[in-house]
Design brief:
Blueprint: E1 5-8, E2 15-17, E3 21-25, H1 42-47, H2 49-52, E4 59-63, H3 67-78, H4 81-86, H5 126-137, H6 144-166
């Protein structure tokens, strides 16, 4: 890699210059520290789609950090834990691509300041629920059922959020939910 290059394109291996635009995948796993895909053009981004099998994705234009921002990020990354919390001089969004973000533990629903701030909307598609019950049994469905089911869905979501947080992920996956019995 030349002295002017920040990284290489993940597809064509062309150097990506400091402070120059580049393309990233909108899917979080492609942007993780482990994968870290960077593309010089939209066509290079499109080249990775067949192997990744994304359901829905798009290319996001970003800007590489300047050489100084990159060097500060590298110094911060190699510094001990105590000095990383006190060194926060770089606050641009492009610097966040080179410096690792510190994860904080996801609070459980009981640890939040107040669950009263959370929305209590109906989380169930009422028409589809009624249609399913009618087709399965011929029964009608009371409107009070949606509130109870929404509470159950919220409890399942809280459990899945805790599970994802314990796995140090910021994405709730299907495996975070308990299996249906």
């Amino acid at each position: 890699m030349s002295d002017q290059a920040w990284r290489k394109c993940s597809s064509c291996k062309k150097p990506l210059e400091f402070n120059a635009p580049y393309w990233a995948c909108s899917v979080s796993t492609c942007n993780s520290k482990r994968m870290g895909y960077f593309f010089c053009s939209v066509s290079c981004w499109e080249a990775h789609l067949p192997s990744m099998r994304h359901r829905e994705a798009w290319a996001v234009e970003k800007r590489a950090p300047s050489r100084a921002q990159y060097q500060q990020g590298q110094a911060r990354e190699s510094a001990p834990e105590e000095s990383t919390s006190s060194n926060s001089s770089v606050s641009t969004s492009s610097a966040s691509t080179s410096a690792p973000k510190r994860r904080r533990a996801v609070p459980s629903p009981g640890e939040r300041d107040s669950d009263n701030d959370l929305p209590k909307d109906v989380l169930i598609v009422v028409s589809k629920l009624k249609k399913y019950i009618k087709a399965k049994s011929g029964f009608k469905t009371s409107d009070g059922v949606t509130k109870i089911l929404s509470d159950h869905v919220r409890a399942l979501c809280d459990q899945a959020i805790r599970h994802a947080g314990e796995a140090e992920r910021k994405t709730v996956l299907d495996r975070d939910f308990p299996p249906v019995r």
